[in-house]
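Kindly review these tokens for lecture notes.

. . .
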Amino acid sequence: MEVIHTIGRRKTAVARIYLKAGNGTITVNKRELNNYFTTPTLQYKVKQALSLVGAEDAYDVKVNVYGGGITGQAEAVRLAIARALCELDAENRAVLKPEGLLTRDPRMVERKKFGQKKARKRFQFSKR
């Protein structure tokens, strides 16, 4: 089996993954998954697509991820893995699509407007 390369994005995070046959090791930025994503919820998000397909121990995943925060990065990795699994076997799509793992989340940070404190918060109004 050749190496499958896919990209996943979330907010400003971009994840490039390389999926190949192996024994289930996930390396993120040359670090072990448990060392990079320390919270169990983020580890679950990264492994979610693999566990739904039932291929946790079948593939090795090498991840390069940059930008954004840890949650955005974890969700970017999840999307990339889901896309790779669909590229590997088209039948995986029927399992992943209903769970929403193949949808790129379009929500981005709203920009700050001038004359305001933040994007929507305003400075305190004084009538007098």
User: Anything to note?
Assistant: The chain has one domain: 4-97. The domain at 4-97 is CATH 3.30.230.10 (Ribosomal Protein S5; domain 2). The beta strands are 4-10, 13-21, 26-28, 31-32, 59-66. The first helix runs from residue 33 to 36.
